[in-house]
């Protein structure tokens, strides 16, 4: 593969750079001391909050007759939550739900990180053609979920308890399963199944990390024991030794093969701006000059995926435009990205934002060559039966 290292990093908050900065003790000794002090106060606040729930001063909100699944992280940054959420929805529809339940009996709740509206938003199962949703109102990840799964309920808001209450009022007892996005740290809500995602393709593994703000751990690593289930994400992009070390560490915390799942992040096909599918092997048949444009938590994993697909060596990556996770693209970002290239390669989460921007400001983009944008559609694969067995096990215990 031909690869020119020309990087455009404006507004970039690259996670690997941040971690490397923190761990470079020789040059950042004073910064390390300050961050250690701040981390101590952060841990103290976590401990105080948890204690208030433990002694009953703060109450845990429990939803009766609904199975609540939490999908979260113990670290900041991208671990692949949205693809896992979509995979769980698919498993529930195809396996557990079958004839007894339909898609409308599933709800996903997200805070809609970095959306431009603060109001609670409840989205009911509707025909997408009759729906006028703005991506800025609900956030990029919920918007992507809505496009993929239009027949489920979707609740958006920072106060998850209020979102759940509004959802239940509107749904009229139709919801049987609630999937909570990124709430592992929110002990205010009772979860029937608590799932932690660990990205084993990351440069730094979770047990090598430090507590915020010194590192990216959201809480002490021993708190991972609160999880019922661990999913190791992007294992096909990780070194075998990293996977092995992670599993060994999880074994130390009491996890075993029955509650650890290895998942792969598999490229499926490319999608052009007109929503036409292009097989991966066909996309790389001829030589091309491409740019990469993305605003995800771990952009290096996307770049690695693209490179791994180019078996013929026909892809020439000119520029990499990496922005902070959930960044809202501007006109100048897109204009810069399509310059002097054949294609602009991006992720599904970025693609929905790009299309919305171009479609809502069509006058400005009237002479804009949107056909250069190609989105790589990814699918998550893991052991469905092991996941289903865990749900059945928990349901059986709770009935008992």
Description:
The chain has 400 residues and is of the alpha/beta class. It has two domains: 125 residues, Rossmann fold, CATH 3.40.50; 214 residues, 3-Layer(aba) Sandwich (Rossmann fold). 35% of the residues lie in helices and 22% in strands. The chain contains twelve helices and 15 strands. The strands form two sheets. Strands 4-5-3-6-2-7-8-9 form an eight-stranded mixed beta sheet, sandwiched between helices. Strands 1-13-12-14-15-10-11 form a seven-stranded mixed beta sheet, with helices on both faces. Helix 11 links the parallel strand 14 and strand 15. The N terminus is likely disordered.
- According to DSSP, the number of beta strands is 15
Strand content: 15-25%
**Architecture (CATH level 2) name of the largest domain:** 3-Layer(aba) Sandwich
Order of strands side by side in the largest beta sheet?
4-5-3-6-2-7-8-9
Given helix and strand content, the structural type is alpha/beta
In helices, the fraction of residues equals: 25-40%
- What value does the average pLDDT take? 88
Oligomer: single chain
Distance between the terminal alpha carbons, to the nearest Å? 58 Å
Largest β sheet strand count, sense and barrel closure? 8 strands, mixed
Question: What's the CATH class of the largest domain, please?
Answer: Alpha Beta
Q: Segments where pLDDT lies below 50 for 5+ residues?
A: 1-13
Count of DSSP H/I helices: 12
Task: Briefly note the CATH topology name of the largest domain.
Answer: Rossmann fold
What is the number of domains? 2
Shape: globular
Radius of gyration: 22 Å
Give helix and strand order, one letter per element, not per position: EHHEHEEHHEHEEEHEEEHEHEHEHEH
């Amino acid at each position: 593969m031909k690869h020119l290292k020309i990087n455009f990093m404006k507004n970039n908050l690259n996670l690997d750079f941040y971690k490397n900065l923190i761990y470079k003790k020789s040059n950042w000794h004073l910064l390390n001391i300050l961050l250690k002090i701040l981390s101590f106060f952060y841990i103290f606040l976590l401990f105080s909050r948890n204690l208030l729930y433990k002694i009953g001063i703060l109450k845990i909100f429990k939803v009766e007759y609904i199975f609540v699944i939490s999908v979260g992280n113990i670290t900041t940054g991208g671990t692949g939550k949205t693809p896992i959420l979509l995979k769980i929805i698919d498993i529930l529809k195809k396996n557990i739900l079958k004839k007894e339940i339909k898609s409308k009996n599933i709800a996903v709740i997200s805070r809609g990180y970095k959306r431009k509206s603060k109001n609670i938003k409840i989205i009911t199962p509707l025909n997408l053609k009759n729906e006028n949703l703005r991506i800025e109102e609900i956030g990029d990840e919920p918007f992507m979920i809505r496009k993929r799964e239009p027949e489920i309920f979707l609740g958006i808001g920072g106060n998850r308890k209020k979102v759940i209450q509004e959802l239940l009022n509107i749904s009229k007892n139709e919801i049987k399963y609630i999937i909570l996005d990124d709430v592992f740290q929110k002990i205010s809500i009772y979860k029937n199944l608590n799932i932690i995602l660990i990205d084993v393709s990351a440069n730094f593994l979770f047990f090598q990390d430090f507590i915020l703000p010194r590192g990216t751990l959201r809480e002490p690593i021993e708190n991972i024991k609160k999880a019922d289930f661990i999913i190791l994400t992007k294992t096909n992009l990780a070194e075998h030794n990293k996977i092995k070390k992670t599993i060994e560490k999880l074994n130390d915390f009491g996890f075993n093969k029955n509650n650890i799942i290895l998942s792969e992040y598999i490229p499926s096909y490319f999608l052009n701006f007109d929503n036409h599918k292009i097989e991966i092997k066909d996309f790389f048949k001829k030589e091309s000059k491409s740019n990469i444009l993305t605003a995800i938590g771990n952009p290096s994993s996307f770049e690695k995926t693209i490179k791994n697909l180019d078996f013929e060596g026909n892809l020439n990556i000119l520029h990499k435009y990496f922005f902070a996770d959930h960044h809202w693209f501007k006109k100048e970002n897109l204009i810069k990205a399509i310059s002097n290239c054949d294609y602009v390669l991006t992720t599904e989460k970025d693609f929905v934002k790009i299309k919305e921007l171009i479609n809502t400001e069509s006058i400005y983009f009237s002479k804009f060559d949107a056909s250069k944008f190609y989105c790589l559609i990814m699918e998550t694969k893991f052991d469905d039966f092991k996941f289903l067995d865990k749900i059945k096990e928990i349901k059986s215990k709770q009935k008992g």
